[in-house]
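Raw record, unedited: DUF445 domain-containing protein
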Amino acid sequence: MDWFYEWVAGIHWVHFLTIPVFTGVVGWLINWSGLFMLFSPLHFKGVRIPGMRELATILPRKVQEVPGVLQGGIGWQGIVPARAAKMGSIAVDKAISKLGTPAEFYQQLEPERIAEHIVESFRPEVPGLVEEVMRREHPRLWRDLPRPIRQAIIDRVQSQLPSVVSGITTEIGVHIDQLLDPKIMVIDHFRDNPSLVVRIFRDFGQRELNLMVAFGFVFGFALGVPVAVVDSIFGQWWLLPLMGVVVGWITNALGMWLIFEPPEPRRILGVKVHGLFLRRQAEAAEVYARIIAEDVITLERIGDFLLDGPSGDRTRQMLAHSLRPAIERAAGPARGAVRVAVGTRRFDTIRDQVAQEAVGRTLTPFRDPEFSRQQSDKIQVLIARRTKELPPRDFVEMMRSAIREDEWMLYAHGAIMGLGGGFLHLWIFGVA
């Protein structure tokens, strides 16, 4: 034990004791600034460098992953916002696709209520729609028709609306798997609204994220003790900066591990350990479901996707096909005489034009924000229930997907700050 007493007697205690304090403070700063790097800024901030875009193509893949590099800039964008679209893709693959098929989402929206809302909203527009098309396609015929007959045609179209619209909503339900792609909906919406992805983390995980920052000091301080011991034994100037790199890297890695691992409760050295996010999966499921139901998979966005998405043309053709027979029947017993009077081609043109004009107006109620909000509760219940049932590993992957491949940037950032902390201590207190 003589060596121990000799070592203790030779320690410069101010130098020794300040090392854990330094590593603790640096650990706190590492996790605090790492949290900032995760979420801010929402959009790329930096400068464009001429020739950088071309140079980026030959740089190592890891360097290309740094936000802005492939776009020819030097700067930063929060890791989560920068990978919003990717998180959307993985969220669908890992979770949303397991939460329900497009048909299940559609059934949750109660097609019968949608049909009623469409009829209620569309009925007042029928007279103007018929007038508009008839005046454009055959103004003389429409002008010459007695007013009672014109009104009878309009009344017939309106009277057939409930059965026609019910058929349309049923038809959409039958083909919804081909018309609606939740993955594209989610990816596009996450990419266009990176703040939404940040909100998913913040709304239910802010407490855990704050705890990670606080643990940065604990981890840093704990790791600083062996660093101080090694430094006091060897007393080399390069030891503190070198070990600062190791401490900074490990501090960030432990912070990420603390949040996401292990996905299921486990005992390590007799202590129960469980990822902080996973401990509140049920609560997180409610928050996640509310955000998805209110902002991502809504009746309003489903209507937009059906008409303007990749399958929009098919949706319009299907709706027009469903509307044509009703419009043709609107002429009633006089249909044959009207067809002869205006000519078969012109009659078919009028029918098709009314059908095409009606397509957009038929799904307009989908885009009613108030009605969409009323229906979102149904989707929220479905998503919350299924998210709670997700295996913990899938839930972790859904939340971590946006940052997994870029975590090395956080660790590298920790290592650089640890290096700087080591040099700062060396500058203030010198070599042990």
